[in-house]
């Protein structure tokens, strides 16, 4: 008879043999009835994410509310992020561990089981502690019966090692993509798209692609250390150094913090520095440094899709140093507010350099034809290049998103070209390597504009020492990769308007 998740009498346990791994001999009733604050917080964030929340926004608030700091906050963060990333694998494990295999599991109970599976299979938590604390969580949030069910399932999970579970799950299919999807916890359509992107961007050969794909999927499942940007000309560098940050070699403006919460630094709070991926920094610096034709003084720069303002923050600081002006545009008013916030330090230090507008970028080409020398289109995209930073994103995105985003991406790029002066440049970028959002968009738009040429963007991607970043593809576009460059998977195409 199956275990009952909701507390109705259940038959004897499956009796599957006790494995070599240690487990709790305590009955659920004897265990603590309440979860501990760190696990409670992880559970609350999982439920908020199930309701549509974003872990990177919900978790910091939940940690503050629970008063968690230091190691406890670290534990809750690893538990939440790790569980969300690996939930595809854990679901396969849990579906095999329930009795009978594949029986349906209540979504709330499944979240609790996922948290337990992560502790058992990926964290240094002793089995008995992982099981009893997760049972306590189930009792507290669902009920006594759920506690018994969770106890039974997690005991079965604890009977095998992570490697044994991986082998078992892998054996459930012969399709190589499905296998990678299960063992590396990604939806299969994303694995397929990433494989096509590695080849399509010229980043991998037919021989190397399978190895590269595994390296990329593994990187998506690692916690990414936060990179900071020191917005130039605002004196952020000295304070970052004083706080223990060190210069990052990937980009001239990038810094890394070995430990601690960068959000707590005054220099981050006042906007002279910010958390920003080094790839995003390289992209903004590339646009700022490319030579443009014409003698416009001062130069006018446009960030067409600026919210929440990360790249505009760097562009604005560089524009101020160069005597140029920047218009940071965003269609959504609340995101335009975020841009204003992000740009506060630059606006304060250099009044008149940056303006924020709320317009549909698709209309800017017509209203401001030929007005700008440098234009950034950091297009809305699926974000498949930033999966390591957004743990739930892989489970939310669907191929339908691509169909919806495609026309918007093309319209925004076409509008950006219209808004660019003769001899000026447009940088089209996405934090996705998906071919449908990158190469295909650029090729389609170029077909309608014979006066626009694609230029090699790779020589503009310079590291702190001034050397071009290696392995960005055969050109003229560039593709950055988490497993190669330690950055998000940014795509860049540089277009010159003739
Ligand atoms: C990838 S994000 C930009 C990220 C930004 N460059 C940064 O570094 O912080 C894309 C932005 O485009 C905005 N967007 C979507 N449709 C738009 C449109 N029609 N016109 C202007 N912005 C648009 C979205 O609201 C979103 O804020």
From TrEMBL:
Which residues carry out catalysis?
A: 431 (nucleophile)
Q: Which InterPro entries match?
A: MeTrfase_RsmB-F_NOP2_cat, MeTrfase_RsmB-F_NOP2_dom, NusB-like_sf, NusB_RsmB_TIM44, RCMT, SAM-dependent_MTases_sf
Instruction: Kindly indicate whether the keyword S-adenosyl-L-methionine belongs to this entry.
Output: yes
Going by the UniProt record, its keywords in alphabetical order are: Methyltransferase, RNA-binding, S-adenosyl-L-methionine, Transferase
What Gene Ontology molecular function terms does this protein carry?
A: methyltransferase activity
Give an example GO biological process. methylation
Binding site residues for S-adenosyl-L-methionine: 305-311, 330, 360, 378
Stored Pfam families: Methyltr_RsmB-F, NusB
Renumbered to this chain, region (Disordered) spans: 1-39
Which superkingdom?
Bacteria
Which intervals hold domain SAM-dependent MTase RsmB/NOP-type?
Answer: 201-498
Q: Which family does it belong to?
A: Belongs to the class I-like SAM-binding methyltransferase superfamily. RsmB/NOP family.
Protein name according to UniProt = rRNA small subunit methyltransferase B
Protein source organism: Ornithinimicrobium cryptoxanthini
